[in-house]
Amino acid sequence: MPVALGGQTVRLSDYKGEKVVVILFFPLAFSSVCTEEMCAVAEDYSQWQGFGAEVIGISTDSPYVNQKFAVECGAPFPIASDYNKTVSMEYQVLLKDMMGLKGVTDRVIYVIDRAGYILYVWKGEHPGVMPPLEEVAEIVEQAV
Fold this sequence. Notes:
alpha/beta; Glutaredoxin; five-stranded mixed beta sheet; two-stranded antiparallel ribbon; 5 helices; 9 strands; globular; Thioredoxin_domain; Tpx_Peroxidase_subfamily; oxidoreductase activity; Thioredoxin-like_sf; redox-active center
């Protein structure tokens, strides 16, 4: 899962055997629901770490936009760019059209266990739905 992040690469395999990984695909940095979601996760990040989990946010925004977004949200976790849409296509989370925008990532959450298996997937009715972060946290806590 190579995703550019400030010149670095984030790979799911880097966490295999060590951490549960929560992947937060989101449509557009700085939009209202995306900001609410990422800031909420940033605020509760110590809880996620306490579960032995790593969080990775991913959108098709540019690396520069996502770096600024991470700073604005105070995100201590990577908010990565899938600008070329490789990972989004692999996870089948690209929207064909969102208000005239093509190839934007849908709001989808994957929880991956330490062995690399998908434990949980959440997808809202539409990208404007805030995900059930408490439910996701419970899934992660049980997986550890």
